[in-house]
Amino acid sequence: MTDADSTALERDRAEALSRAVAPLEDELITPALVIDLDAVEHNIAAMVQRAGSPQRWRPHLKTTKQAVVISALIRAGLRHLKVATLDELELVLRTGAAEDVALDVLVAYPLQRAACRGALALAARWPEAQIHVLADSPAHLEALAAWSGSDPLSVLLDVDLGMGRTGSAPDRWRALEATPEGLSLAGLHGYDGHHRWTHREAAHAGYGQLCALAQAFLERPALRIQGAFELLTSGTHSYAHALAYPGFAESKEAPSPNPWLHRVSPGTIVFNDRRSKPAAEDLGLRQAAFVASRVISVGPGRATLDAGSKGVTPDADSRGSCAVLGHPALSPRRASEEHLPLALPEPSLESSLEFGALAWLVPDHVCTTVNLHREALWIRGDRLVGRGPIVSGHRPRAPLTEAQEARP
Questions:
Q1: How many CB atoms lie within 10 A of CB 49?
Q2: CA separation (Å) from 402 to 98, 228, 370?
Q3: Contact 363/273 with Cβ under 8 angstroms?
Q4: Which H or E element spans position 95?
Q5: Whose CB among 215, 261, 286, 321 lies 3.0–4.6 Å from 313's, allowing a Cys bridge?
């Protein structure tokens, strides 16, 4: 496909998006997050096919944060999910109950005392679900045992495979001889987000360490291992390395001979973004998340949109916060909090970006973009089909009401 063909397709997409939100023209306050549910379902199906089965994928929901997306995952057969906050955990448990399915959820963050008690309280409200928490270190493991009291708590050990952010090195965990009272060991979490698409050899070296640690633990009865021992790795930038690793290999024809169950946990791929281009090409992803923005000022050589760092990719790097759908010649400059200036290389572009014109932005990083918005508009094709709340942040909040949870 030529660049001209690609631009033409993007402009058709932008026009369809504009038609979808046209019924809200008089009430649409921008910047606004718009989610294409057809693209969401396409991307979920693509990842399930790539993984080989829904059971091989535990998607991280920090990207999506919406009941309508969780329901789409459930309809596709997903039962194992991953979250980072108590808000996300509550949303998942509430949605699973509404869908009448029992979910298995990992809180993939080193919880402190109050948050740990909060997770236990949620587990008590939805006893049909299985909840696991992450242990960052042997000391944190002991603390989790103390905080859980008489409440049973299932843990995965966070193994640092070189990312240097959380978790403990394999050698430090290897000294663990027994699981503290009140806890059971469900597996190992070896997130390798520091690896990119070209880092297969280094990623496989880390997986070898993870498997060796798992093998050592499975030979220690005092660790009280719960059910199938799970090895959980890999987000959007490294899932392909894990799916290609022989030590994790499994298929319908030849199930894995290993005494553990491996899963990957990419979440960004459900919506897709500019940072995920290799995964998008590998899976054939469609862009599902857009930010609707309007021109608020036009001057010589520039037009300014209302989607600053509080509307799209607040953690932008040198690539910029976004791209303007259908307008590859427009170059976003550095955003301020409320403003996003666009460089106009040709004076003729000013006529298409007059004051109030709608522009469609593709986020560079969709996870942080979604977290900036309180609600999303949902579309299918060029039709608006609904809207709903987004769960954001770590802070406590009132539970969602039934009205807020309405889905199309």
A1: 11
A2: 10, 35, 22
A3: yes
A4: helix 86-98
A5: 321
The tokens for 98 are 């509404």
Nearest to 392 by CA among 31, 73, 85: 85
Dist. CA 269–CA 239, nearest whole Å: 11
Which of 179-193, 270-284, 308-322, 341-355 comes out lowest in average pLDDT? 341-355
**How many structural domains compose the chain?**
2
pLDDT reading at 398 higher than 60: no
On whether residue 17 sits in a domain, the answer given is yes
Give 362: exposed, middle or buried? Use CB within 10 Å, 0-12, 13-18, 19+: buried
Report the C-alpha gap between 233 and 207 in whole angstroms: 8
| 237: β partners | none
- Name all contacts of 399-407 with Cβ < 8 Å and 24+ positions apart: 399/90, 399/94, 400/67, 400/90, 400/91, 400/94, 405/67, 405/94, 405/95, 405/98, 407/67, 407/68, 407/71
CATH assignment at residue 10: 2.40.37.20
Q: Do 292 and 266 share a structural domain?
A: no
Average pLDDT, the chain: 92
Q: Residue 251's domain spans which residues?
A: 38-271
Nearest by Cα to 96 from 121, 61, 120: 61
Q: Are residues 102 and 211 in the same domain?
A: yes
pLDDT for residue 318: 83
The reported pLDDT for the residue numbered 394 is 45
The Cα–Cα gap between 265 and 243 comes to: 11
Q: Which amino acid is at 300?
A: P
